[in-house]
Amino acid sequence: MTDWTRRKLLTRSLALGCSAAASPLLTPISLAAGPWDNRLVVIILRGAMDGLDVVQPYGDPAYAAARPNLKGGEAGGGLDLDGYFSLHPALEALMPMWRAGELGFAHAVSTPYRDKRSHFDGQDLLEAGTPDLGPATGRDGWLNRMLQTVPGMRPDLAYAIGHENLLILTGQAPVANWSPDVRLKLSPQGRRLAELVMHDDPAFADAFAEAAQQLDSGDGGMMAVPTGTDMDMAGLSKKGTEGIRQVAAFAGEKLLGDTRIASFSIGGWDTHRFQPGALPRALTQLSDALLVLKSTLGDTWGKTAVVAMTEFGRTVRENGTRGTDHGTGGAMLLAGGAIRGGQVARDWPGLSEAALYQRRDLMPTRDVRAYAGWVMRGLFGLDASVLERTVFPGLDLGPRPSLIL
Protein backbone atom coordinates (compact mmCIF):
# COMPACT_ATOMS: atom_id res chain seq x y z
CA MET A 1 0.00 0.00 0.00
CA THR A 2 1.24 3.47 -0.82
CA ASP A 3 2.88 5.30 2.08
CA TRP A 4 0.80 8.23 3.35
CA THR A 5 2.11 11.39 4.93
CA ARG A 6 0.50 12.79 8.06
CA ARG A 7 -0.76 15.76 6.06
CA LYS A 8 -2.51 13.46 3.62
CA LEU A 9 -3.91 11.51 6.55
CA LEU A 10 -5.64 14.59 7.91
CA THR A 11 -6.65 16.20 4.62
CA ARG A 12 -7.94 13.30 2.54
CA SER A 13 -10.86 11.02 3.14
CA LEU A 14 -9.44 7.85 4.69
CA ALA A 15 -11.16 4.73 5.85
CA LEU A 16 -10.47 5.04 9.56
CA GLY A 17 -12.52 4.38 12.67
CA CYS A 18 -15.12 6.74 14.08
CA SER A 19 -12.44 8.36 16.20
CA ALA A 20 -8.70 8.20 16.40
CA ALA A 21 -8.99 7.35 20.06
CA ALA A 22 -11.01 4.26 19.29
CA SER A 23 -8.32 2.88 17.00
CA PRO A 24 -4.89 4.49 17.42
CA LEU A 25 -2.30 3.91 14.72
CA LEU A 26 0.24 2.46 17.09
CA THR A 27 -0.55 0.04 19.87
CA PRO A 28 2.58 -0.56 21.93
CA ILE A 29 2.73 -3.31 24.48
CA SER A 30 4.31 -2.32 27.79
CA LEU A 31 5.92 -4.79 30.15
CA ALA A 32 7.45 -4.72 33.59
CA ALA A 33 9.19 -7.25 35.83
CA GLY A 34 8.36 -7.71 39.50
CA PRO A 35 9.36 -9.89 42.47
CA TRP A 36 6.24 -12.07 42.49
CA ASP A 37 5.25 -15.38 41.00
CA ASN A 38 1.79 -14.28 39.88
CA ARG A 39 1.16 -12.46 36.59
CA LEU A 40 -1.14 -9.59 35.64
CA VAL A 41 -2.24 -8.60 32.14
CA VAL A 42 -4.23 -5.39 31.64
CA ILE A 43 -5.96 -4.92 28.28
CA ILE A 44 -7.34 -1.46 27.43
CA LEU A 45 -10.37 -1.71 25.13
CA ARG A 46 -10.19 1.60 23.26
CA GLY A 47 -13.38 3.09 21.91
CA ALA A 48 -15.91 2.38 24.68
CA MET A 49 -17.05 -1.25 24.59
CA ASP A 50 -20.81 -1.73 24.79
CA GLY A 51 -20.99 -3.89 27.91
CA LEU A 52 -24.74 -4.27 27.47
CA ASP A 53 -24.20 -6.10 24.20
CA VAL A 54 -21.19 -8.10 25.33
CA VAL A 55 -22.81 -9.26 28.58
CA GLN A 56 -26.50 -8.95 27.76
CA PRO A 57 -28.98 -8.52 30.64
CA TYR A 58 -31.77 -10.26 28.80
CA GLY A 59 -33.49 -10.92 32.13
CA ASP A 60 -34.12 -7.20 32.61
CA PRO A 61 -37.60 -6.48 31.19
CA ALA A 62 -36.47 -3.11 29.77
CA TYR A 63 -33.58 -4.52 27.75
CA ALA A 64 -35.39 -5.84 24.67
CA ALA A 65 -37.51 -2.72 24.33
CA ALA A 66 -34.45 -0.47 24.40
CA ARG A 67 -32.72 -2.42 21.65
CA PRO A 68 -35.28 -3.82 19.20
CA ASN A 69 -32.86 -3.94 16.25
CA LEU A 70 -29.78 -5.22 18.06
CA LYS A 71 -29.38 -8.95 18.50
CA GLY A 72 -29.49 -10.17 22.06
CA GLY A 73 -32.80 -8.72 23.23
CA GLU A 74 -33.77 -12.16 24.44
CA ALA A 75 -32.00 -15.23 25.74
CA GLY A 76 -31.71 -16.65 22.22
CA GLY A 77 -29.63 -13.68 21.13
CA GLY A 78 -26.63 -14.76 23.16
CA LEU A 79 -25.07 -17.62 25.07
CA ASP A 80 -26.83 -17.99 28.40
CA LEU A 81 -24.57 -17.50 31.40
CA ASP A 82 -26.70 -17.56 34.52
CA GLY A 83 -30.36 -17.26 33.59
CA TYR A 84 -30.23 -13.45 33.60
CA PHE A 85 -27.16 -12.51 31.54
CA SER A 86 -26.03 -13.94 28.22
CA LEU A 87 -22.73 -13.66 26.37
CA HIS A 88 -22.35 -12.20 22.89
CA PRO A 89 -22.06 -15.06 20.35
CA ALA A 90 -18.74 -13.68 19.07
CA LEU A 91 -17.19 -14.82 22.37
CA GLU A 92 -18.43 -18.40 22.07
CA ALA A 93 -14.83 -19.67 21.92
CA LEU A 94 -14.40 -18.44 25.51
CA MET A 95 -17.25 -20.52 26.93
CA PRO A 96 -14.89 -23.33 28.00
CA MET A 97 -13.05 -20.74 30.10
CA TRP A 98 -16.37 -19.67 31.62
CA ARG A 99 -17.30 -23.24 32.49
CA ALA A 100 -13.83 -23.83 33.97
CA GLY A 101 -14.18 -20.78 36.22
CA GLU A 102 -11.45 -18.90 34.33
CA LEU A 103 -13.65 -16.16 32.87
CA GLY A 104 -15.95 -13.70 34.57
CA PHE A 105 -17.41 -10.25 34.18
CA ALA A 106 -18.18 -7.22 36.34
CA HIS A 107 -21.19 -5.19 35.22
CA ALA A 108 -22.44 -1.67 35.90
CA VAL A 109 -18.91 -0.36 36.46
CA SER A 110 -17.13 2.81 35.37
CA THR A 111 -14.28 5.15 36.17
CA PRO A 112 -15.14 8.45 37.94
CA TYR A 113 -15.40 10.07 34.49
CA ARG A 114 -18.83 11.56 33.78
CA ASP A 115 -20.88 13.49 31.26
CA LYS A 116 -18.42 14.76 28.62
CA ARG A 117 -17.84 11.28 27.18
CA SER A 118 -14.64 12.09 25.27
CA HIS A 119 -12.60 9.06 24.24
CA PHE A 120 -9.28 10.74 24.96
CA ASP A 121 -10.23 12.12 28.37
CA GLY A 122 -11.96 8.86 29.26
CA GLN A 123 -8.96 6.76 28.30
CA ASP A 124 -6.54 9.11 30.05
CA LEU A 125 -8.58 8.86 33.24
CA LEU A 126 -8.83 5.08 32.92
CA GLU A 127 -5.06 4.71 32.56
CA ALA A 128 -4.14 7.42 35.08
CA GLY A 129 -6.41 5.80 37.68
CA THR A 130 -7.17 9.17 39.27
CA PRO A 131 -10.51 10.77 40.18
CA ASP A 132 -10.03 13.56 37.62
CA LEU A 133 -7.61 14.91 35.04
CA GLY A 134 -6.65 18.16 36.76
CA PRO A 135 -3.12 19.58 36.45
CA ALA A 136 -2.11 18.05 39.78
CA THR A 137 -2.64 14.47 38.58
CA GLY A 138 0.55 14.37 36.50
CA ARG A 139 1.12 11.98 33.61
CA ASP A 140 1.84 8.67 35.30
CA GLY A 141 -0.31 5.58 35.13
CA TRP A 142 -1.74 3.45 37.90
CA LEU A 143 0.25 0.34 37.02
CA ASN A 144 3.47 2.34 37.15
CA ARG A 145 2.52 3.84 40.53
CA MET A 146 1.89 0.34 41.79
CA LEU A 147 5.36 -0.71 40.65
CA GLN A 148 6.87 2.27 42.45
CA THR A 149 5.61 0.87 45.76
CA VAL A 150 7.64 -2.34 45.36
CA PRO A 151 11.23 -2.30 46.71
CA GLY A 152 14.00 -3.52 44.43
CA MET A 153 12.21 -2.98 41.15
CA ARG A 154 14.41 -3.63 38.13
CA PRO A 155 13.78 -3.19 34.42
CA ASP A 156 12.76 -6.11 32.27
CA LEU A 157 15.05 -7.17 29.45
CA ALA A 158 15.59 -4.06 27.29
CA TYR A 159 13.50 -3.74 24.14
CA ALA A 160 14.04 -0.62 22.08
CA ILE A 161 11.09 -1.37 19.81
CA GLY A 162 8.08 0.93 20.05
CA HIS A 163 7.76 4.66 20.46
CA GLU A 164 6.16 5.36 23.81
CA ASN A 165 4.76 3.69 26.91
CA LEU A 166 1.07 3.31 27.40
CA LEU A 167 0.00 5.93 29.93
CA ILE A 168 -1.02 3.12 32.29
CA LEU A 169 2.66 2.10 32.64
CA THR A 170 4.23 5.53 32.24
CA GLY A 171 6.12 6.84 35.27
CA GLN A 172 9.28 6.49 37.31
CA ALA A 173 9.28 2.70 37.60
CA PRO A 174 11.36 0.99 34.88
CA VAL A 175 9.50 -0.74 32.07
CA ALA A 176 10.37 -2.08 28.61
CA ASN A 177 8.44 -1.55 25.37
CA TRP A 178 7.74 -3.54 22.24
CA SER A 179 5.31 -3.01 19.40
CA PRO A 180 4.50 -4.96 16.24
CA ASP A 181 5.48 -3.52 12.88
CA VAL A 182 3.02 -0.91 11.58
CA ARG A 183 2.99 1.16 8.44
CA LEU A 184 1.64 4.34 9.94
CA LYS A 185 2.55 6.13 13.12
CA LEU A 186 0.81 9.11 14.68
CA SER A 187 1.76 10.96 17.83
CA PRO A 188 -0.79 11.51 20.61
CA GLN A 189 -0.97 15.15 19.51
CA GLY A 190 -1.72 14.06 15.97
CA ARG A 191 -4.43 11.71 17.16
CA ARG A 192 -6.03 14.50 19.15
CA LEU A 193 -5.99 16.72 16.08
CA ALA A 194 -7.60 13.95 14.06
CA GLU A 195 -10.34 13.59 16.66
CA LEU A 196 -11.05 17.31 16.53
CA VAL A 197 -11.25 17.20 12.74
CA MET A 198 -13.60 14.25 12.81
CA HIS A 199 -15.93 15.43 15.53
CA ASP A 200 -16.18 19.05 14.42
CA ASP A 201 -16.75 18.34 10.73
CA PRO A 202 -20.00 16.42 10.07
CA ALA A 203 -18.71 15.13 6.74
CA PHE A 204 -15.57 13.73 8.35
CA ALA A 205 -17.55 12.30 11.25
CA ASP A 206 -19.89 10.47 8.88
CA ALA A 207 -17.02 9.16 6.77
CA PHE A 208 -15.15 7.87 9.79
CA ALA A 209 -18.26 6.26 11.25
CA GLU A 210 -19.02 4.59 7.94
CA ALA A 211 -15.46 3.31 7.62
CA ALA A 212 -15.55 1.85 11.12
CA GLN A 213 -18.03 -0.73 9.90
CA GLN A 214 -15.83 -1.71 6.97
CA LEU A 215 -12.36 -2.03 8.47
CA ASP A 216 -11.09 -4.05 11.34
CA SER A 217 -8.97 -1.97 13.65
CA GLY A 218 -6.01 -4.27 13.21
CA ASP A 219 -3.75 -4.91 16.19
CA GLY A 220 -5.23 -1.86 17.84
CA GLY A 221 -4.15 0.39 15.00
CA MET A 222 -5.90 2.13 12.15
CA MET A 223 -5.41 1.28 8.49
CA ALA A 224 -5.50 4.18 6.05
CA VAL A 225 -7.27 3.38 2.80
CA PRO A 226 -7.74 6.00 0.04
CA THR A 227 -11.30 6.62 -1.09
CA GLY A 228 -12.19 4.58 -4.14
CA THR A 229 -9.53 1.93 -3.56
CA ASP A 230 -10.67 -1.66 -3.84
CA MET A 231 -9.46 -3.53 -0.78
CA ASP A 232 -9.75 -7.16 0.26
CA MET A 233 -11.70 -6.65 3.47
CA ALA A 234 -11.38 -10.30 4.46
CA GLY A 235 -7.63 -9.98 4.07
CA LEU A 236 -7.53 -6.84 6.22
CA SER A 237 -9.58 -8.54 8.91
CA LYS A 238 -7.23 -11.52 8.86
CA LYS A 239 -4.25 -9.16 9.15
CA GLY A 240 -5.82 -7.52 12.19
CA THR A 241 -6.49 -10.87 13.84
CA GLU A 242 -2.91 -11.98 13.26
CA GLY A 243 -1.69 -8.68 14.71
CA ILE A 244 -3.40 -9.12 18.05
CA ARG A 245 -2.33 -12.74 18.19
CA GLN A 246 1.25 -11.58 17.71
CA VAL A 247 0.89 -9.10 20.56
CA ALA A 248 -0.70 -11.70 22.88
CA ALA A 249 1.90 -14.34 22.02
CA PHE A 250 4.74 -11.93 22.74
CA ALA A 251 3.18 -10.96 26.05
CA GLY A 252 2.72 -14.61 26.98
CA GLU A 253 6.30 -15.50 26.12
CA LYS A 254 7.65 -12.66 28.24
CA LEU A 255 5.37 -13.60 31.14
CA LEU A 256 6.84 -17.10 31.07
CA GLY A 257 10.17 -15.50 31.96
CA ASP A 258 10.91 -12.68 34.38
CA THR A 259 8.10 -10.38 33.29
CA ARG A 260 5.18 -10.23 35.67
CA ILE A 261 3.00 -7.42 34.26
CA ALA A 262 1.95 -6.74 30.68
CA SER A 263 -0.44 -4.20 29.23
CA PHE A 264 -1.66 -3.63 25.70
CA SER A 265 -4.72 -2.26 23.96
CA ILE A 266 -7.29 -3.42 21.44
CA GLY A 267 -9.21 -0.85 19.39
CA GLY A 268 -12.39 -0.96 17.35
CA TRP A 269 -15.06 -0.60 20.08
CA ASP A 270 -16.64 2.70 18.95
CA THR A 271 -19.88 1.31 17.51
CA HIS A 272 -21.98 4.34 16.56
CA ARG A 273 -23.24 2.62 13.42
CA PHE A 274 -24.20 -0.94 12.52
CA GLN A 275 -23.07 -2.44 15.79
CA PRO A 276 -24.06 -6.00 14.77
CA GLY A 277 -21.31 -5.86 12.16
CA ALA A 278 -18.65 -3.88 14.00
CA LEU A 279 -18.74 -5.34 17.51
CA PRO A 280 -18.06 -8.98 16.56
CA ARG A 281 -14.80 -7.97 14.89
CA ALA A 282 -13.50 -6.36 18.07
CA LEU A 283 -14.77 -9.24 20.20
CA THR A 284 -13.00 -11.75 17.97
CA GLN A 285 -9.72 -9.95 18.57
CA LEU A 286 -10.32 -9.97 22.33
CA SER A 287 -11.21 -13.66 22.23
CA ASP A 288 -8.12 -14.44 20.17
CA ALA A 289 -5.91 -12.50 22.58
CA LEU A 290 -7.20 -14.47 25.58
CA LEU A 291 -6.94 -17.83 23.85
CA VAL A 292 -3.37 -17.13 22.69
CA LEU A 293 -2.39 -15.95 26.16
CA LYS A 294 -3.76 -19.10 27.76
CA SER A 295 -2.14 -21.36 25.18
CA THR A 296 1.23 -19.63 25.44
CA LEU A 297 1.28 -19.50 29.24
CA GLY A 298 0.44 -23.17 29.78
CA ASP A 299 0.58 -23.98 33.49
CA THR A 300 1.46 -20.33 34.24
CA TRP A 301 -2.12 -19.43 33.21
CA GLY A 302 -3.12 -20.71 36.66
CA LYS A 303 -1.08 -17.90 38.24
CA THR A 304 -2.35 -15.21 35.86
CA ALA A 305 -5.15 -12.66 36.03
CA VAL A 306 -6.27 -10.74 32.93
CA VAL A 307 -8.26 -7.54 33.34
CA ALA A 308 -9.89 -6.00 30.24
CA MET A 309 -11.38 -2.55 30.79
CA THR A 310 -12.76 0.30 28.69
CA GLU A 311 -13.10 4.07 29.11
CA PHE A 312 -16.91 4.12 29.45
CA GLY A 313 -19.99 2.23 28.35
CA ARG A 314 -22.60 3.06 25.75
CA THR A 315 -26.22 4.21 25.79
CA VAL A 316 -28.92 1.80 26.84
CA ARG A 317 -31.10 2.68 23.87
CA GLU A 318 -29.86 2.01 20.36
CA ASN A 319 -29.65 4.94 17.96
CA GLY A 320 -31.15 5.33 14.49
CA THR A 321 -28.26 3.66 12.70
CA ARG A 322 -28.33 0.33 14.59
CA GLY A 323 -25.54 1.50 16.83
CA THR A 324 -25.09 2.97 20.29
CA ASP A 325 -23.63 6.28 21.43
CA HIS A 326 -21.17 7.18 24.17
CA GLY A 327 -22.53 6.34 27.60
CA THR A 328 -21.41 5.83 31.20
CA GLY A 329 -21.75 2.47 32.97
CA GLY A 330 -20.36 -0.59 31.25
CA ALA A 331 -18.72 -3.96 31.82
CA MET A 332 -15.22 -5.31 32.36
CA LEU A 333 -13.80 -8.76 31.77
CA LEU A 334 -11.59 -10.82 34.07
CA ALA A 335 -9.89 -14.04 33.01
CA GLY A 336 -7.16 -16.43 34.09
CA GLY A 337 -6.58 -19.17 36.59
CA ALA A 338 -6.03 -16.63 39.37
CA ILE A 339 -9.63 -15.37 39.35
CA ARG A 340 -12.88 -16.96 40.47
CA GLY A 341 -14.81 -16.92 37.20
CA GLY A 342 -18.05 -18.43 36.03
CA GLN A 343 -20.06 -15.47 37.29
CA VAL A 344 -21.21 -11.95 36.47
CA ALA A 345 -20.46 -9.78 39.48
CA ARG A 346 -22.78 -6.79 39.77
CA ASP A 347 -24.92 -4.58 41.89
CA TRP A 348 -27.48 -4.38 39.12
CA PRO A 349 -29.36 -1.03 39.01
CA GLY A 350 -31.91 -2.02 36.39
CA LEU A 351 -32.68 -0.50 33.01
CA SER A 352 -35.97 1.28 33.63
CA GLU A 353 -35.74 4.90 32.57
CA ALA A 354 -35.91 6.15 36.14
CA ALA A 355 -32.95 3.92 37.07
CA LEU A 356 -30.65 5.18 34.30
CA TYR A 357 -27.89 7.72 34.67
CA GLN A 358 -29.24 10.96 33.16
CA ARG A 359 -32.14 8.81 31.94
CA ARG A 360 -29.94 7.45 29.11
CA ASP A 361 -27.04 5.35 30.43
CA LEU A 362 -26.50 2.31 32.60
CA MET A 363 -26.03 3.63 36.14
CA PRO A 364 -22.56 2.74 37.51
CA THR A 365 -22.78 1.02 40.88
CA ARG A 366 -19.07 0.31 41.42
CA ASP A 367 -15.78 1.90 40.44
CA VAL A 368 -13.90 -0.17 37.87
CA ARG A 369 -10.70 0.73 39.72
CA ALA A 370 -11.92 -1.23 42.76
CA TYR A 371 -11.87 -4.48 40.79
CA ALA A 372 -8.39 -3.73 39.47
CA GLY A 373 -7.27 -2.86 43.00
CA TRP A 374 -8.61 -6.08 44.47
CA VAL A 375 -6.94 -8.08 41.70
CA MET A 376 -3.56 -6.53 42.60
CA ARG A 377 -4.22 -7.05 46.30
CA GLY A 378 -4.96 -10.71 45.68
CA LEU A 379 -2.06 -11.29 43.27
CA PHE A 380 0.66 -9.25 44.93
CA GLY A 381 -0.46 -8.79 48.53
CA LEU A 382 -0.54 -4.98 48.36
CA ASP A 383 -1.94 -3.15 51.38
CA ALA A 384 -5.37 -1.59 50.94
CA SER A 385 -3.98 1.78 52.05
CA VAL A 386 -1.36 1.70 49.27
CA LEU A 387 -4.02 0.95 46.69
CA GLU A 388 -6.44 3.61 47.95
CA ARG A 389 -3.90 6.41 48.45
CA THR A 390 -1.08 5.83 45.99
CA VAL A 391 -2.16 3.56 43.16
CA PHE A 392 -5.74 4.84 42.92
CA PRO A 393 -5.87 8.14 44.88
CA GLY A 394 -9.23 8.70 46.54
CA LEU A 395 -10.57 5.19 45.82
CA ASP A 396 -12.67 3.28 48.32
CA LEU A 397 -11.92 -0.37 47.56
CA GLY A 398 -15.13 -1.47 49.23
CA PRO A 399 -15.90 -5.14 49.90
CA ARG A 400 -13.86 -7.86 48.23
CA PRO A 401 -15.60 -8.85 44.97
CA SER A 402 -16.62 -12.44 44.59
CA LEU A 403 -14.57 -12.70 41.38
CA ILE A 404 -11.29 -12.34 43.26
CA LEU A 405 -9.68 -15.45 44.78
UniProtKB/TrEMBL annotation:
Residues 1-32 form the signal peptide. It comes from the Bacteria. The keyword Transcription regulation does not apply. Keywords: Signal. Pfam families: DUF1501. This is DUF1501 domain-containing protein. It comes from Thalassobius vesicularis.
